[in-house]
Input
Amino acid sequence: MNYILETHNLTKTHGSKIRVKNLQMQVPKGCVYGFLGPNGAGKTTTLKLILGLIKPNQGTISFYGHAMTEKNRLSILKNTGSLIEGPSYYGHLTGLENMQIIAKLKGASAKDIAEVLHTVRLFEQKDKKVKHYSLGMKQRLGIAMALLGKPQLLILDEPTNGLDPAGIQEIRELIKELPTTHNMTVIVSSHLLSEVEQMADMVGIINHGEMLFQGNMNELATQGNSLEEVFLSMTGGISEL
Output
């Protein structure tokens, strides 16, 4: 299988606490990969390791079949967009002005900005100050910033957190469209079982920093366990739907 991202024995400790333990993650090209686990399972730590925001204690990370090193990190990550722990923006500026700042950093054009704003359905609100955006609009702006530069891999950390049902549906539909409309691979982390079931082609289930299952829904079914049963076993019988 053609993997866009792989990790090998990825491990991160903080003092005596293990955040991520010998993680083997394989993300096929052109899919929506749901990274599922309860809060504190190690999802955000893993994504930060993948993006080089923190360093692993051991293990390797490979993009497009090439191991990431200090020398090639920046060139590799040019093909990656991300939204980690919520969007960053200047509230006193408009959506368009915020996008122009990011576009300058990424070397994207005005045409790219317009295309991305249309993709996330924010073009009509581009001249509105971001401090007046709804939470859902701010999330979409964060995704728009991540999409600038046409990355091959998009990493979204809990993108529906705090949204109302309408906002969740908007983000969900947007994510599902990206592999087809933009030839993009998306990793989306969530502690919500229902989100992963409705968006993802592939799923990786993590708890206490360890990968419990990785594969597609059919593979999980053939093992005799439903996604819900596995998730309930991780959360003590509480389904976060």
About this structure: The chain has two domains: 1-79+151-241, 87-150. The radius of gyration is 18 Å.
